[in-house]
Amino acid sequence: MTGAPISRGFRGRGGGTNSRVPPGQHLVEDFPVLSAGPTPPVDLANWRLSLDDGDSPLAEWTWQQFLALPQTDLTVDIHCVTTWSKLDTHWKGVSIDTLLEAAGLTEPPQPYVLAHCDGGYTTNIPAEDLLDGKAMIAFEFEGEELDPEHGGPARLLVPHLYFWKSAKWVQKLQFVDPEIPGFWEENGYHIYGDPWREQRYDGD
Ligand SMILES: Nc1nc2c(c(=O)[nH]1)N[C@H]1C(S)=C(S)[C@@H](COP(=O)(O)O)O[C@H]1N2
Ligand SMILES: [Mo]
């Protein structure tokens, strides 16, 4: 058969889990750890999460203040660019919508975000990809506090993009314009990283 590729909706007809596995991915039951560096020690007394507009601080929360914000539960599938996918993962955290609201913002001050982590890792995401319940700062996984090797005490979760966008040990979301490529994006990976369009590498 030639012509247009079969659409996702069509392929999904049979139900089942295959329709939930993006091209080139396979399912895993375990939860692999992928870190570019060592796991930073957990230090809740000095933990801070901040929002910046360029170089100007917008808001900052201590751990206590962060936990006092309204919380959200998310059940989502996650997809790592190294080809593993994991279905129906359960997370609790604070949505980015809630953070913006708590900071007194009705919309993102700039169209792009650079997430900064303890340890120096960075990743970039368009601001709109963090809104409308699509992303959160997660602090619980499967009903337990988030394991340090998986980003505890808290990580960004952006499940509709490859998992390298879900920055572990996140400390700051910096709103910027133009977009600033993060660690993997600077090292040959795709600037956006949509698993359904198999945007693994620059140029895909
Ligand atoms: N701070 C930080 N966040 C990170 C990474 C990292 O090396 N450092 N690796 C990314 C990559 S490539 C992936 S696939 C996921 C892995 O998350 P996990 O170790 O919880 O599976 O975290 C992402 N977030
Ligand atoms: Mo990854």
From TrEMBL:
It comes from the Bacteria. Residues 1-26 are annotated as: Disordered. Gene3D superfamilies: Oxidoreductase, molybdopterin-binding domain. It holds the Pfam family Oxidored_molyb. InterPro entries: OxRdtase_Mopterin-bd_dom, OxRdtase_Mopterin-bd_sf. Residues 37-184 form the Oxidoreductase molybdopterin-binding domain. This is Sulfite oxidase-like oxidoreductase. The lineage of its organism: Bacteria, Pseudomonadati, Pseudomonadota, Alphaproteobacteria, Hyphomicrobiales.
